[in-house]
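re the bet — no i am not wrong, look at it urself. input seq straight from the record:
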Amino acid sequence: MGSFADYWENEILDHIFGKGSYTPPTIYVGLSTADPTDDGSGLAEPTGNAYARVSTLAADWNVASGGALDNANDITFPEATGSWGTITHFALFDAATGDNMLAHGALSASKAIGSGDVAKFAAGDLDVSLD
């Protein structure tokens, strides 16, 4: 189960307490070969070999319940044209590249991604919760 990153926690708190405004971004799903940690310092996204974050729409997520939500639809990455390494974590971002990590979490099982593989989160498999 994933948790919110420090950046997103602060943005939401500032918004709720009237210290700033916040517009929900397009959510991009990314992969990592290491634990990104709440401050993003451990993020190790694959590079090259057709790796790209996947953008989602609001309809791609179920309504939150009990402080958690999950993906309503499959989230499918491009076919790898070479090794992406062993993926151990996911992360959510507010841009296709760079910018801010919003949330992160560990996969239930690590997965080595090689040429010809397609990484995918089936509907209901990507969980995010408030911690």
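see?? The chain has one domain: 2-129. told u. also Helices lie at 6-16. so pay up
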